UniProtKB/TrEMBL annotation:
Main location: nucleus
Subcellular location: Nucleus
Domain MYST-type HAT, first and last residues per copy: 196-467
Name of the protein: Histone acetyltransferase
Family: Belongs to the MYST (SAS/MOZ) family.
Name of a matching Pfam family: MOZ_SAS
Any one of the GO BP annotations: DNA repair
Enzyme Commission (EC) number: 2.3.1.48
Length: 472
Protein backbone atom coordinates (compact mmCIF):
# COMPACT_ATOMS: atom_id res chain seq x y z
CA UNK A 1 0.00 0.00 0.00
CA UNK A 2 1.10 3.57 -0.05
CA UNK A 3 0.13 5.01 -3.36
CA UNK A 4 -1.78 8.19 -3.11
CA UNK A 5 -2.61 9.15 -6.63
CA UNK A 6 -6.28 9.20 -5.86
CA UNK A 7 -6.10 12.18 -3.60
CA UNK A 8 -3.89 14.34 -5.61
CA UNK A 9 -6.25 15.84 -8.07
CA UNK A 10 -7.23 18.01 -5.14
CA UNK A 11 -3.87 19.65 -5.27
CA UNK A 12 -4.51 20.81 -8.76
CA UNK A 13 -0.79 21.26 -9.08
CA UNK A 14 0.33 18.27 -11.07
CA UNK A 15 -0.45 18.39 -14.74
CA UNK A 16 -1.28 14.74 -15.00
CA UNK A 17 -3.61 14.90 -12.04
CA UNK A 18 -5.40 17.74 -13.75
CA UNK A 19 -5.56 15.77 -16.95
CA UNK A 20 -6.96 12.80 -15.11
CA UNK A 21 -9.49 14.94 -13.33
CA UNK A 22 -10.57 16.47 -16.58
CA UNK A 23 -11.00 13.05 -18.02
CA UNK A 24 -12.77 11.43 -15.12
CA UNK A 25 -14.75 14.03 -13.30
CA UNK A 26 -15.25 17.26 -15.12
CA UNK A 27 -16.07 16.02 -18.58
CA UNK A 28 -19.20 13.92 -18.29
CA UNK A 29 -19.90 14.03 -21.98
CA UNK A 30 -16.54 12.47 -22.71
CA UNK A 31 -17.17 9.84 -20.07
CA UNK A 32 -20.43 8.93 -21.66
CA UNK A 33 -18.86 8.57 -25.03
CA UNK A 34 -16.06 6.51 -23.68
CA UNK A 35 -18.55 4.17 -22.08
CA UNK A 36 -20.39 3.74 -25.31
CA UNK A 37 -17.24 2.77 -27.13
CA UNK A 38 -16.31 0.29 -24.49
CA UNK A 39 -19.79 -1.09 -24.40
CA UNK A 40 -19.85 -1.51 -28.15
CA UNK A 41 -16.78 -3.65 -28.11
CA UNK A 42 -18.79 -6.25 -26.28
CA UNK A 43 -22.34 -5.66 -27.36
CA UNK A 44 -21.91 -5.58 -31.11
CA UNK A 45 -21.36 -9.30 -31.19
CA UNK A 46 -24.91 -9.94 -30.13
CA UNK A 47 -26.91 -7.04 -31.46
CA UNK A 48 -25.65 -4.43 -33.84
CA UNK A 49 -24.71 -4.87 -37.42
CA UNK A 50 -21.23 -4.20 -38.66
CA UNK A 51 -19.93 -0.68 -38.06
CA UNK A 52 -19.59 1.53 -41.07
CA UNK A 53 -15.90 1.59 -41.72
CA UNK A 54 -14.95 3.65 -44.74
CA UNK A 55 -14.47 1.30 -47.66
CA UNK A 56 -11.00 2.66 -48.31
CA UNK A 57 -9.91 1.36 -44.92
CA UNK A 58 -10.78 -2.19 -45.74
CA UNK A 59 -8.00 -4.53 -46.58
CA UNK A 60 -8.39 -8.09 -47.67
CA UNK A 61 -12.09 -8.40 -47.16
CA UNK A 62 -14.24 -10.61 -44.96
CA UNK A 63 -12.60 -13.05 -42.69
CA UNK A 64 -9.07 -11.97 -43.51
CA UNK A 65 -6.80 -13.02 -40.73
CA UNK A 66 -3.28 -12.89 -42.08
CA UNK A 67 -0.93 -9.96 -42.07
CA UNK A 68 -2.00 -7.16 -44.37
CA UNK A 69 -0.23 -3.97 -45.14
CA UNK A 70 -1.09 -0.31 -45.36
CA UNK A 71 0.85 2.44 -46.98
CA UNK A 72 2.52 4.86 -44.58
CA UNK A 73 3.12 8.51 -45.31
CA UNK A 74 6.64 7.97 -46.50
CA UNK A 75 5.71 5.21 -48.83
CA UNK A 76 6.70 2.52 -46.36
CA UNK A 77 4.27 -0.31 -45.68
CA UNK A 78 2.70 -0.71 -42.27
CA UNK A 79 2.01 -4.32 -41.38
CA UNK A 80 -1.39 -5.07 -39.89
CA UNK A 81 -2.30 -6.02 -37.32
CA UNK A 82 0.08 -3.65 -35.56
CA UNK A 83 2.77 -5.15 -33.38
CA UNK A 84 2.84 -4.59 -29.66
CA UNK A 85 5.41 -1.86 -29.08
CA UNK A 86 4.48 0.14 -32.18
CA UNK A 87 4.53 3.90 -31.69
CA UNK A 88 2.37 6.37 -33.58
CA UNK A 89 -0.22 9.11 -33.06
CA UNK A 90 -3.72 8.37 -31.79
CA UNK A 91 -6.86 10.50 -31.65
CA UNK A 92 -7.69 11.07 -27.97
CA UNK A 93 -10.98 12.10 -26.41
CA UNK A 94 -10.01 15.77 -26.85
CA UNK A 95 -10.15 15.19 -30.62
CA UNK A 96 -6.44 15.84 -30.98
CA UNK A 97 -3.68 13.40 -31.88
CA UNK A 98 -1.18 12.34 -29.23
CA UNK A 99 1.79 9.95 -29.32
CA UNK A 100 1.00 6.43 -28.12
CA UNK A 101 2.66 3.08 -27.75
CA UNK A 102 0.71 -0.13 -28.34
CA UNK A 103 0.71 -2.14 -25.12
CA UNK A 104 -1.58 -5.00 -26.14
CA UNK A 105 -3.91 -6.04 -28.93
CA UNK A 106 -6.93 -8.29 -29.01
CA UNK A 107 -9.34 -9.66 -31.56
CA UNK A 108 -12.77 -8.16 -31.80
CA UNK A 109 -15.88 -10.36 -31.99
CA UNK A 110 -16.39 -11.75 -35.52
CA UNK A 111 -19.24 -9.44 -36.62
CA UNK A 112 -17.10 -6.44 -35.97
CA UNK A 113 -14.16 -7.71 -37.91
CA UNK A 114 -16.00 -8.32 -41.17
CA UNK A 115 -13.79 -5.79 -42.80
CA UNK A 116 -10.46 -7.45 -42.26
CA UNK A 117 -7.37 -5.44 -43.00
CA UNK A 118 -6.45 -5.12 -39.37
CA UNK A 119 -9.90 -3.94 -38.29
CA UNK A 120 -10.46 -7.25 -36.56
CA UNK A 121 -8.17 -6.03 -33.80
CA UNK A 122 -8.38 -3.32 -31.22
CA UNK A 123 -5.35 -1.96 -29.44
CA UNK A 124 -4.59 -1.06 -25.86
CA UNK A 125 -2.48 2.06 -25.99
CA UNK A 126 -0.44 4.11 -23.55
CA UNK A 127 -0.38 7.86 -24.22
CA UNK A 128 3.28 8.56 -23.64
CA UNK A 129 2.59 12.13 -22.49
CA UNK A 130 0.01 11.09 -19.92
CA UNK A 131 -0.28 9.02 -16.77
CA UNK A 132 -0.92 5.29 -17.13
CA UNK A 133 -4.44 5.82 -15.80
CA UNK A 134 -5.47 7.14 -19.21
CA UNK A 135 -4.41 3.99 -21.08
CA UNK A 136 -7.34 2.62 -23.09
CA UNK A 137 -8.57 0.34 -25.86
CA UNK A 138 -8.86 2.06 -29.23
CA UNK A 139 -10.03 1.04 -32.67
CA UNK A 140 -7.79 1.11 -35.70
CA UNK A 141 -9.51 4.19 -37.12
CA UNK A 142 -8.38 6.26 -34.14
CA UNK A 143 -4.78 5.51 -35.01
CA UNK A 144 -2.90 7.58 -37.57
CA UNK A 145 -1.01 4.93 -39.52
CA UNK A 146 0.86 7.61 -41.42
CA UNK A 147 2.80 8.33 -38.26
CA UNK A 148 3.89 4.79 -37.42
CA UNK A 149 7.50 4.87 -36.32
CA UNK A 150 9.88 2.50 -38.03
CA UNK A 151 11.31 0.91 -34.89
CA UNK A 152 9.09 -1.37 -32.87
CA UNK A 153 10.11 -1.60 -29.22
CA UNK A 154 11.54 -4.87 -28.01
CA UNK A 155 8.78 -7.39 -28.14
CA UNK A 156 6.87 -7.72 -24.94
CA UNK A 157 6.51 -11.33 -23.92
CA UNK A 158 3.30 -13.15 -24.41
CA UNK A 159 0.67 -12.19 -21.87
CA UNK A 160 0.06 -15.83 -21.02
CA UNK A 161 3.43 -16.12 -19.33
CA UNK A 162 2.70 -13.22 -17.03
CA UNK A 163 -0.64 -14.66 -16.04
CA UNK A 164 1.12 -17.75 -14.80
CA UNK A 165 2.67 -15.75 -11.99
CA UNK A 166 2.21 -17.41 -8.66
CA UNK A 167 0.40 -15.68 -5.88
CA UNK A 168 3.72 -15.36 -4.11
CA UNK A 169 5.38 -13.64 -7.05
CA UNK A 170 2.42 -11.37 -7.46
CA UNK A 171 2.45 -10.40 -3.85
CA UNK A 172 6.17 -9.84 -3.89
CA UNK A 173 5.84 -7.46 -6.78
CA UNK A 174 2.87 -5.65 -5.40
CA UNK A 175 4.53 -5.17 -2.07
CA UNK A 176 7.43 -3.46 -3.68
CA UNK A 177 6.57 -0.01 -4.72
CA UNK A 178 7.34 0.51 -8.35
CA UNK A 179 7.75 4.23 -8.44
CA UNK A 180 10.78 3.92 -6.21
CA UNK A 181 12.60 1.98 -8.88
CA UNK A 182 15.65 1.49 -6.72
CA UNK A 183 13.91 -1.28 -4.81
CA UNK A 184 12.87 -3.24 -7.83
CA UNK A 185 15.12 -4.90 -10.32
CA UNK A 186 14.29 -4.40 -13.96
CA UNK A 187 12.87 -7.90 -14.36
CA UNK A 188 10.40 -7.49 -11.49
CA UNK A 189 9.35 -4.09 -12.71
CA UNK A 190 8.65 -5.55 -16.14
CA UNK A 191 6.74 -8.36 -14.54
CA UNK A 192 4.61 -5.94 -12.57
CA UNK A 193 3.87 -3.80 -15.57
CA UNK A 194 3.21 -6.84 -17.69
CA UNK A 195 0.73 -8.23 -15.24
CA UNK A 196 -1.10 -4.97 -14.63
CA UNK A 197 -0.70 -3.35 -18.01
CA UNK A 198 -4.26 -3.66 -19.24
CA UNK A 199 -7.16 -2.21 -17.32
CA UNK A 200 -9.69 -5.00 -16.85
CA UNK A 201 -12.73 -3.14 -15.56
CA UNK A 202 -13.45 0.06 -17.50
CA UNK A 203 -16.28 1.50 -15.42
CA UNK A 204 -18.08 0.88 -12.17
CA UNK A 205 -21.42 1.95 -10.84
CA UNK A 206 -21.31 3.04 -7.22
CA UNK A 207 -24.28 4.75 -5.64
CA UNK A 208 -25.34 7.67 -7.80
CA UNK A 209 -22.17 7.59 -9.85
CA UNK A 210 -20.84 5.82 -12.84
CA UNK A 211 -17.08 6.09 -12.58
CA UNK A 212 -14.38 5.45 -15.15
CA UNK A 213 -11.60 3.41 -13.61
CA UNK A 214 -7.91 4.25 -13.80
CA UNK A 215 -5.99 1.03 -13.26
CA UNK A 216 -6.01 -2.74 -13.28
CA UNK A 217 -7.47 -4.44 -10.21
CA UNK A 218 -7.13 -8.19 -9.56
CA UNK A 219 -10.80 -9.17 -9.33
CA UNK A 220 -11.49 -12.90 -9.07
CA UNK A 221 -11.24 -14.77 -12.42
CA UNK A 222 -15.01 -15.05 -12.87
CA UNK A 223 -15.06 -11.27 -13.46
CA UNK A 224 -12.44 -11.45 -16.22
CA UNK A 225 -14.98 -10.88 -18.97
CA UNK A 226 -16.61 -7.85 -17.30
CA UNK A 227 -16.14 -4.36 -18.63
CA UNK A 228 -18.41 -2.85 -16.00
CA UNK A 229 -19.11 -3.80 -12.40
CA UNK A 230 -22.00 -2.77 -10.19
CA UNK A 231 -21.13 -2.08 -6.54
CA UNK A 232 -23.46 -1.90 -3.59
CA UNK A 233 -22.33 1.42 -2.15
CA UNK A 234 -22.86 0.24 1.42
CA UNK A 235 -21.43 -3.31 1.70
CA UNK A 236 -19.28 -2.90 -1.46
CA UNK A 237 -20.31 -6.27 -2.85
CA UNK A 238 -19.92 -6.18 -6.61
CA UNK A 239 -22.01 -7.73 -9.32
CA UNK A 240 -21.88 -8.27 -13.07
CA UNK A 241 -25.33 -7.01 -13.92
CA UNK A 242 -27.53 -4.10 -12.98
CA UNK A 243 -30.48 -6.41 -12.22
CA UNK A 244 -28.35 -8.32 -9.73
CA UNK A 245 -27.51 -5.06 -8.00
CA UNK A 246 -31.17 -4.01 -7.92
CA UNK A 247 -32.12 -7.33 -6.38
CA UNK A 248 -29.29 -6.97 -3.88
CA UNK A 249 -30.32 -3.44 -2.90
CA UNK A 250 -33.78 -4.69 -1.98
CA UNK A 251 -32.36 -7.04 0.62
CA UNK A 252 -29.10 -5.37 1.72
CA UNK A 253 -29.83 -3.86 5.11
CA UNK A 254 -26.68 -1.73 5.41
CA UNK A 255 -27.03 2.01 5.01
CA UNK A 256 -23.46 2.84 6.05
CA UNK A 257 -20.10 1.05 6.21
CA UNK A 258 -20.05 -1.76 8.78
CA UNK A 259 -18.26 -0.74 11.97
CA UNK A 260 -18.30 2.15 14.42
CA UNK A 261 -19.11 5.73 13.58
CA UNK A 262 -16.25 7.58 15.26
CA UNK A 263 -16.77 11.08 13.86
CA UNK A 264 -19.78 13.09 12.84
CA UNK A 265 -19.76 16.75 11.87
CA UNK A 266 -22.60 18.16 9.82
CA UNK A 267 -23.23 15.72 6.99
CA UNK A 268 -19.78 14.12 7.26
CA UNK A 269 -19.22 10.86 9.09
CA UNK A 270 -16.18 8.66 9.55
CA UNK A 271 -16.54 4.95 10.21
CA UNK A 272 -13.86 2.66 11.61
CA UNK A 273 -14.05 -0.80 10.05
CA UNK A 274 -12.00 -3.63 11.54
CA UNK A 275 -10.68 -5.82 8.71
CA UNK A 276 -10.82 -8.86 10.94
CA UNK A 277 -14.46 -8.42 11.88
CA UNK A 278 -15.49 -7.36 8.38
CA UNK A 279 -13.23 -9.35 6.14
CA UNK A 280 -15.37 -9.32 3.02
CA UNK A 281 -15.96 -5.59 3.28
CA UNK A 282 -12.20 -5.01 3.67
CA UNK A 283 -11.43 -7.13 0.62
CA UNK A 284 -14.14 -5.45 -1.46
CA UNK A 285 -12.76 -2.07 -0.48
CA UNK A 286 -9.27 -3.14 -1.61
CA UNK A 287 -10.56 -4.36 -4.99
CA UNK A 288 -12.40 -1.08 -5.44
CA UNK A 289 -9.47 1.09 -4.35
CA UNK A 290 -7.00 -0.68 -6.62
CA UNK A 291 -9.01 0.54 -9.62
CA UNK A 292 -7.78 4.04 -8.75
CA UNK A 293 -4.32 3.35 -7.30
CA UNK A 294 -1.53 2.23 -9.59
CA UNK A 295 0.83 0.45 -7.23
CA UNK A 296 -1.31 -0.24 -4.24
CA UNK A 297 -0.27 -3.40 -2.45
CA UNK A 298 -2.73 -6.23 -2.57
CA UNK A 299 -3.03 -7.25 0.99
CA UNK A 300 -4.89 -10.50 1.19
CA UNK A 301 -4.63 -10.20 4.92
CA UNK A 302 -7.11 -7.44 5.68
CA UNK A 303 -7.25 -8.73 9.29
CA UNK A 304 -4.23 -6.62 10.13
CA UNK A 305 -5.83 -3.36 9.09
CA UNK A 306 -8.38 -0.82 10.20
CA UNK A 307 -10.23 1.06 7.47
CA UNK A 308 -11.38 4.62 8.05
CA UNK A 309 -14.21 5.27 5.64
CA UNK A 310 -15.36 8.85 5.11
CA UNK A 311 -19.00 9.35 4.11
CA UNK A 312 -21.36 12.09 3.05
CA UNK A 313 -24.65 11.34 4.77
CA UNK A 314 -28.23 12.10 3.75
CA UNK A 315 -31.63 10.51 4.28
CA UNK A 316 -30.74 7.65 1.91
CA UNK A 317 -27.68 6.63 3.89
CA UNK A 318 -23.97 7.27 4.28
CA UNK A 319 -22.20 7.43 0.93
CA UNK A 320 -18.51 6.62 0.84
CA UNK A 321 -16.36 9.42 -0.58
CA UNK A 322 -12.94 8.03 0.34
CA UNK A 323 -10.94 6.15 2.93
CA UNK A 324 -7.58 5.43 4.39
CA UNK A 325 -6.26 2.22 5.89
CA UNK A 326 -4.01 1.82 8.87
CA UNK A 327 -2.09 -1.12 10.25
CA UNK A 328 -3.27 -2.16 13.70
CA UNK A 329 0.32 -2.52 14.82
CA UNK A 330 3.09 -0.78 12.95
CA UNK A 331 6.67 -1.12 14.07
CA UNK A 332 7.66 1.67 11.70
CA UNK A 333 5.09 4.04 13.27
CA UNK A 334 3.06 4.17 10.09
CA UNK A 335 -0.25 5.87 10.73
CA UNK A 336 -1.57 5.45 7.19
CA UNK A 337 -1.13 2.72 4.59
CA UNK A 338 -3.43 3.60 1.70
CA UNK A 339 -5.51 6.66 0.97
CA UNK A 340 -8.06 7.32 -1.73
CA UNK A 341 -10.69 9.89 -2.56
CA UNK A 342 -13.10 8.51 -5.16
CA UNK A 343 -12.98 10.50 -8.41
CA UNK A 344 -16.48 12.09 -8.17
CA UNK A 345 -15.52 13.56 -4.79
CA UNK A 346 -12.06 14.83 -5.63
CA UNK A 347 -10.98 18.45 -5.37
CA UNK A 348 -13.31 19.10 -2.48
CA UNK A 349 -10.64 18.89 0.22
CA UNK A 350 -11.42 15.31 1.29
CA UNK A 351 -7.88 14.03 0.65
CA UNK A 352 -6.47 16.66 2.96
CA UNK A 353 -9.19 15.90 5.48
CA UNK A 354 -8.17 12.22 5.48
CA UNK A 355 -4.50 13.06 6.01
CA UNK A 356 -5.38 15.45 8.86
CA UNK A 357 -7.65 12.79 10.37
CA UNK A 358 -4.82 10.23 10.39
CA UNK A 359 -2.72 12.63 12.46
CA UNK A 360 -5.58 13.34 14.87
CA UNK A 361 -5.75 9.58 15.56
CA UNK A 362 -1.99 9.55 16.18
CA UNK A 363 -2.34 12.43 18.64
CA UNK A 364 -5.00 10.48 20.54
CA UNK A 365 -2.65 7.50 20.63
CA UNK A 366 0.12 9.73 21.94
CA UNK A 367 2.38 8.61 19.10
CA UNK A 368 4.06 10.23 16.17
CA UNK A 369 3.03 8.87 12.80
CA UNK A 370 4.13 8.85 9.20
CA UNK A 371 2.58 7.49 5.99
CA UNK A 372 3.80 4.14 4.74
CA UNK A 373 6.76 4.46 2.38
CA UNK A 374 7.57 4.88 -0.30
CA UNK A 375 5.11 7.54 -1.27
CA UNK A 376 4.26 8.08 -4.89
CA UNK A 377 5.46 11.43 -6.19
CA UNK A 378 1.93 12.74 -6.19
CA UNK A 379 1.28 11.37 -2.72
CA UNK A 380 4.32 13.18 -1.43
CA UNK A 381 2.90 16.37 -2.91
CA UNK A 382 -0.31 16.02 -0.87
CA UNK A 383 1.61 15.32 2.29
CA UNK A 384 4.09 18.14 1.70
CA UNK A 385 1.14 20.52 1.44
CA UNK A 386 -0.32 19.27 4.72
CA UNK A 387 3.00 19.33 6.58
CA UNK A 388 3.80 22.81 5.27
CA UNK A 389 0.47 24.28 6.39
CA UNK A 390 0.52 22.70 9.84
CA UNK A 391 4.16 23.42 10.64
CA UNK A 392 4.30 26.95 9.27
CA UNK A 393 1.09 27.91 11.07
CA UNK A 394 2.80 26.97 14.32
CA UNK A 395 6.04 28.71 13.41
CA UNK A 396 4.12 31.89 12.67
CA UNK A 397 2.54 31.86 16.13
CA UNK A 398 5.74 30.96 17.98
CA UNK A 399 8.00 33.92 17.58
CA UNK A 400 10.50 32.37 19.97
CA UNK A 401 12.65 29.38 19.13
CA UNK A 402 10.93 26.08 18.79
CA UNK A 403 12.65 22.76 18.29
CA UNK A 404 11.80 20.01 15.86
CA UNK A 405 11.07 17.75 18.81
CA UNK A 406 8.52 20.26 20.12
CA UNK A 407 6.94 20.59 16.69
CA UNK A 408 6.69 16.81 16.50
CA UNK A 409 5.06 16.55 19.95
CA UNK A 410 2.48 19.17 18.99
CA UNK A 411 1.56 17.76 15.59
CA UNK A 412 2.27 13.99 15.78
CA UNK A 413 4.30 14.47 12.60
CA UNK A 414 7.46 12.39 12.67
CA UNK A 415 10.66 14.42 13.17
CA UNK A 416 12.16 13.16 9.89
CA UNK A 417 9.15 14.47 7.97
CA UNK A 418 9.39 17.84 9.74
CA UNK A 419 13.06 18.11 8.94
CA UNK A 420 12.63 17.18 5.27
CA UNK A 421 9.69 19.57 4.86
CA UNK A 422 11.51 22.51 6.40
CA UNK A 423 14.65 21.65 4.44
CA UNK A 424 12.75 21.57 1.18
CA UNK A 425 11.46 25.07 2.00
CA UNK A 426 14.98 26.16 2.86
CA UNK A 427 14.00 27.03 6.43
CA UNK A 428 16.72 25.01 8.15
CA UNK A 429 20.19 26.20 8.91
CA UNK A 430 22.92 24.04 10.31
CA UNK A 431 24.87 25.92 12.97
CA UNK A 432 27.39 24.61 15.46
CA UNK A 433 26.32 21.04 14.86
CA UNK A 434 22.66 21.89 15.42
CA UNK A 435 19.66 22.36 13.16
CA UNK A 436 18.09 25.76 13.59
CA UNK A 437 14.77 26.83 12.12
CA UNK A 438 14.77 30.27 10.60
CA UNK A 439 11.29 31.65 10.45
CA UNK A 440 11.09 35.02 8.78
CA UNK A 441 7.35 35.87 8.82
CA UNK A 442 7.39 37.11 5.24
CA UNK A 443 9.01 33.89 4.02
CA UNK A 444 6.52 31.82 6.01
CA UNK A 445 3.60 33.70 4.49
CA UNK A 446 4.96 33.16 1.03
CA UNK A 447 5.29 29.40 1.58
CA UNK A 448 1.86 29.17 3.19
CA UNK A 449 0.29 30.89 0.24
CA UNK A 450 2.03 28.49 -2.15
CA UNK A 451 0.85 25.49 -0.13
CA UNK A 452 -2.77 26.40 -0.84
CA UNK A 453 -5.86 25.99 1.25
CA UNK A 454 -6.13 23.31 3.88
CA UNK A 455 -9.49 21.99 2.78
CA UNK A 456 -12.01 20.75 5.31
CA UNK A 457 -10.93 20.93 8.92
CA UNK A 458 -11.21 18.05 11.32
CA UNK A 459 -13.22 19.18 14.34
CA UNK A 460 -11.45 17.21 17.07
CA UNK A 461 -14.32 17.73 19.51
CA UNK A 462 -16.46 15.55 17.20
CA UNK A 463 -14.01 12.64 17.25
CA UNK A 464 -15.15 9.91 19.67
CA UNK A 465 -12.47 7.25 19.53
CA UNK A 466 -10.27 5.03 21.60
CA UNK A 467 -7.13 3.53 20.08
CA UNK A 468 -7.36 -0.04 18.84
CA UNK A 469 -6.68 -2.82 21.34
CA UNK A 470 -6.72 -6.49 20.48
CA UNK A 471 -9.56 -8.18 22.28
CA UNK A 472 -9.00 -11.15 24.56
ZN1 LIG B 1 -25.03 -4.28 0.00
Amino acid sequence: MGSLEGTVAENGGAAEAAAAAAATTTAPSCNGKQLEENGNAVDMAQTDGPPAFPAADCGDGPGATGVTTRKGRFGGLVALPLEVGTRMLCRWRDGKFHPVKVIERRKLPPTVSFCGGGHEYEYYVHYTEFNRRLDEWVKLDQLDLDTVEADVDEKVEDKATSLKMTRHQKRKIDETHVEGHEELDAASLREHEEFTKVKNIATIELGRYEIETWYFSPFPPEYNDCVKLFFCEFCLNFMKRKEQLQRHMRKCDLKHPPGDEIYRCGTLSMFEVDGKKNKVYGQNLCYLAKLFLDHKTLYYDVDLFLFYVLCECDDRGCHMVGYFSKEKHSEESYNLACILTLPPYQRKGYGKFLIAFSYELSKKEGKVGTPERPLSDLGLLSYRGYWTRVLLDILKKHKSNISIKELSDMTAIKADDILSTLQSLDLIQYRKGQHAICADPKVLDRHLKAAGRGGLDVDVSKLIWTPFKEQG
